[in-house]
Amino acid sequence: MDQSQRTKILAALEDQDTTVTITDPLENEMVLNMGPQHPATHGVLRLLVRLDGETVMAVVPELGYLHRGYEKIAENSTYHEFIPHTDRLDYLSPLSNNVAYVLAVEKLAGLVIPPRAQYIRVLVCEMARIASHLVAVGSMAMDVGALTALLWTFREREKLLDIYDVLCGARFTTSYARIGGLQQDWTAQCTTMLNTFLGEFEQDLQEVYRLLSTNRIFVDRCENVGYCSPDDLIAWGVTGPLLRAAGVPRDLRRDRPYLVYDQLDFDVVTLPESDALARFYVRMGEMRESAKILRQALDLLPEGPIFAEDSKRVLPSKERIYTKMEELIHDFMLINLGIDPPVGEVYAGIESSKGELGFYIISDGTGHPWRMKIRSPSMVNISAMPMMLRGAMISDVVAIIGSVDPVMGEADK
Amino acid sequence: MNDEMLGRITAAAGEEPVEVTEFRGDTTVVLSPSALLRVAECMRSELSFDLIIDVLGVDMYRPDKRYEVVYVLYSISRKAYLQLKIRIDEEHPEVPSVTSIWPGANWHEREVYDMFGITFTGHPDLRRLYMPEEFEYHPLRKDFPLMGVPDSLPLPRR
Amino acid sequence: MALEALQRDGFLTARLDDVISWARKNSLWPMPMGISCCAIEMMATASPRFDIARFGSEVMRFTPRQCDVMIVAGTVTYKMARVVRKIYDQMPDPKWVISMGACASSGGMFRSYSVVQGIDQFVPVDVFVAGCPPRPEALLHALMALQEKITKEGAIRPSARSAQITIPETVSGAPA
To answer: Which domain holds residue A50?
Structure first.
């Protein structure tokens, strides 16, 4: 638009005189602020969208509205004191964050965990993955317009949260993993509840699948929307369901097995299309694979202790803390003064529901970490969003954000 | 880390010293900042470390070479991690940016700049990531208090 | 007694104050300022199991112009405080605020440089809900406490009655 016409429009706005005509009213670009408070941005994500009419020209995401200073808090807490903070990272699957952090600290300290604890950790990680994907699928469907899917997936999630309640004592922010083991043991009641859940889960998932996959509106809103080539995704460091929906079969559970994933049989779900619909199908497929893993892990669950044998590093069991003096002193020292790992630095990552969640811990030999960096998959996924949004329509922005599924507690640390 | 990989990295570094350490199965290659871009290009193109996992800054709070920058890399074909580390001092905290090699380092380097004040030369868009633009301090430095500096961030009136 | 009078005479008498308060408290439309983990528990409160809709809060409108109560759910940072205040200012009177969770009430477990240690520093709060996150039952209890407060506050002559209400109600949820 040339200068004379632009001044005419501004002058018209000032005079509120609408008799000015322009040759092409769509030939201007507008900056729209999808602000931090928005129903569809999955948390406090701010997107500055530059629009040409209804087509998106460029997007700049802005983070930091939930920056809580985790890394500074970690430098001031002991290793045990930081475990409740890890719940609040990816708050849709808090149990897998606990396990990721504890795995990193155990790698640093060189602890070996008994097999029963490893199987229980696999169980809780996969339950957390199902819970997180249920919310992802439900809110993507709600953003696109299908509110029923959200209510159904939340109903399934409530069954999982009941199991967490019995197992960990809290339904949501659990702080279940401990350094060297777990908080409390897996009971027969948990097995019964999980078996009941698995018996109904396949069918309920099939209901949601049937509702959405043949729905013309859902498919049209999500197909060929938000495409990003696998090379671009790899160049930007994206991992998780986004990369697997682009045809790259990278899954840390298969490539670098941690816990006991090398003894379990499951498929890595990949699709080649790399659009919003493919990501939706990948998440549905991963939920089915997680159900398979849960069944196998329940069958293979061995008996035994759930704590490693190292009284100077690992918390003793609660009954002994309340009754014996030595364990009480150990408990106090370990939580308040720390576990004193050797000097060094490690990186340990797991495959969480959003991608690779990793902790880089630098220890100086004392009970507080010198530096802890949290590699959050959601931050990297959001950094790849401008590529997906270029050229899309404004109404596709919501579908694309839903398919990327960012969690701001993790992205903003 | 086999000898062939080490040979290629040393060749790319030229006369600059290369030090390799291992701890708990993780391999770290310590470089000098001037060799960083050459070695990074070698890692991506010849050794196929194509996925950049993380870039982080560390404040060691020592008089010589106060800051460190660590790059965590992953190779999809080899299924292996590798870490690169460089050390820089307090007076000139500048590091060449690797966004030309791995575009994904863009936001990680912005975060390091935000938290430590280390500038990355050649970065396309170096601004703060988490704290507001007007914030004057760098929070993760060891001399910044946990509760922050009073009145450094504005609050709306009640 | 009221129903008998209705059936006998065909009309009811009541104070206008009570009728307006009754209408207001049973149709509190929440404005979900869902920021972090507490937002998920707020969504769970709206889900079929706990069902906030039976209290009249069916429509969680995301536009502040149509809402009565703002539920601040999650950690409020200094960067976000400006936005929360802006949304609060856009809500029409009468409006109330429920501060859900430990982070919104007092900064919670995040004692750091970027977290506001309590939203009552910049927004007047009516009900605080403790918990990290509070169970959905605790949020419903908070809503019921707010309904009691609305009844006590009165609508026509708010200054005469609400002088009795000076301390915000504190509701403790089940420990998480």
So the answer is: 3-62
